[in-house]
Amino acid sequence: QTLCESEGVTVETGVLPLVVRAGGGSPRDTLSLLDQLIAGSDGPVVRYERAVALLGYSHGELLNEVVDAVAGSGPRLFF
């Protein structure tokens, strides 16, 4: 968040957790993905919907992750 602010880039709520997840624990990969999102955005705002599309997530996948987390990472019963 601090890096984005220092670069004059605004990210919508939920974007940074997606970028961190997509980076797979690698700071270098995470920064590279963030840079790609900034470059692929219209203007100085990285929108959540655009980030989801560019990172290749679907709302179903994200919902499954939430359900798994709430259920204690048990088997997927929905979707």
Q: Can you describe this structure in just a few lines?
A:
With about 80 residues, this protein is mainly alpha-helical.
Characterize the structure shown.
The protein is mainly alpha-helical and 79 residues long. Helix content is 58%, strand content 5%. The N and C termini lie far apart (32 Å). α2 crosses α3 and α2 packs parallel to α4. The model has no long low-confidence stretch (mean pLDDT 82). The protein is globular and about 40 Å long. Strands 1-2 form a two-stranded parallel ribbon. It is built from five helices and two strands; from the N terminus they run αβααβαα.
Quick tags:
globular, mainly alpha, 79 residues, two-stranded parallel ribbon, single chain
With helices defined by DSSP (H or I, 4 residues minimum), what is the helix count? 5
Lateral arrangement of strands in the main beta sheet: 1-2
**Count the strands?**
2
Which value, in Å, is the CA radius of gyration?
Answer: 14 Å
Sketch the topology as an H/E string, one letter per element.
Answer: HEHHEHH
How far the N terminus sits from the C terminus, by CA atoms, comes to 32 Å
Low-confidence region ranges: none
